[in-house]
Amino acid sequence: MSKQLPTFSESELSRIIEMAWEDRTPFDAITASFGVSEPQVIKLMRTHMKPGSFRLWRKRVSNRSTKHVAKRPEGVARAYCPTQYKQR
């Protein structure tokens, strides 16, 4: 039985979806930031995306080494690119 998804604000939900779309942000970073597991992220994406967009996303992230920390090359410890976020 799947664990119930927590309730998120619109901004949190938007950020989770954005992180899931980013090729270099691992699912572990989403878990650390929002407390949702990879299967929960997949369920969330399925719920909040059009079916075709979801299939495209799943095809792209399946077995992608950058989305799974265990599959990343040794020495890559960051969750995102240092230039990814705009500085204020």
Report on this structure.
By secondary structure, this protein is an all-alpha fold. It has a domain at 10-66. Helices cover 48% and strands 0% of the residues. The chain has helices spanning 10-21, 27-34, 38-48, 51-61.
Helicity level: 40-55%
Q: Whole-number radius of gyration?
A: 13 Å
Q: SSE order in H/E notation?
A: HHHH
DSSP strand content: under 5%
SSE diagram, text form:
Blueprint: H1 10-21, H2 27-34, H3 38-48, H4 51-61
Helix pairs in contact: 1-2
Give the key terms.
88 residues; mainly alpha; 4 helices; 48% helix; globular
Summed up, what is this model?
By secondary structure, the protein is mostly helical.
